[in-house]
Amino acid sequence: MPSPTSAGTQAAGRPQARRTQADRSAATRNALVAAARGLFAVQGFAEVSNDAIVAAAGVTRGALYHQFEDKTALFDAVLDAVEADIARRLTDAVAGAGITDPVEAMRYVIRTWLDICVEPEIHRIALIDGPSVVGWAHWREVCQRHVFGLAQALLLGGIELGRIRPQPVRPLAHILMGASDEAALYVAEAADRAQARAEMIRVLDGLIDGVAA
Prior knowledge:
Blueprint: H1 4-43, H2 50-57, H3 61-67, H4 71-97, H5 102-116, H6 120-134, H7 136-160, H8 169-188, H9 193-211
Helix pairs in contact: 1-2, 1-4, 1-6, 4-5, 4-6, 4-7, 5-7, 5-9, 6-7, 7-8, 8-9
Region (Disordered): 1-24
GO molecular function: DNA-binding transcription factor activity; transcription cis-regulatory region binding
DNA-binding region: 49-68
């Protein structure tokens, strides 16, 4: 019969074992997402095989299918990570620039977005493959989950400060996000990206001028 001390030690050890297994599972998942993210950015979803993903992640095919139903489910996780990074970078850019005026913050966000949209993983994963792989409706849901809040906050702040004319915020945020995504595609796929960026900034600045008080 085990002593009270040994029984207590065993009982205390069980949660630790579960935590260790959870940590291992999370590490495997993170490795797969990171590996797939790099491969999808360079080669595109259709050209990346499951074997290439598990080799880059240093795991087995069994580990891949334990974490994700299929390659599309893995891409969905990658897309979510990319969109989360986009939202963080846009928020950090405004905060780092010390911009407090909501209208000028909107202009700065757009300029930052048109700078980073040409990066391979954002261009390929978020703009090109995203809608076709996970479907347009889910792609928009992922985008809005991360970035829509930033757009709404800037618009609400502008209205509260009298810098933006009072109007329904949610539909306006949809319009501005849609225009920004189209602008990003235009810039990323242009032969002369610098010229395309300048053109789109003028157009989007005009949209912002139209809603500013």
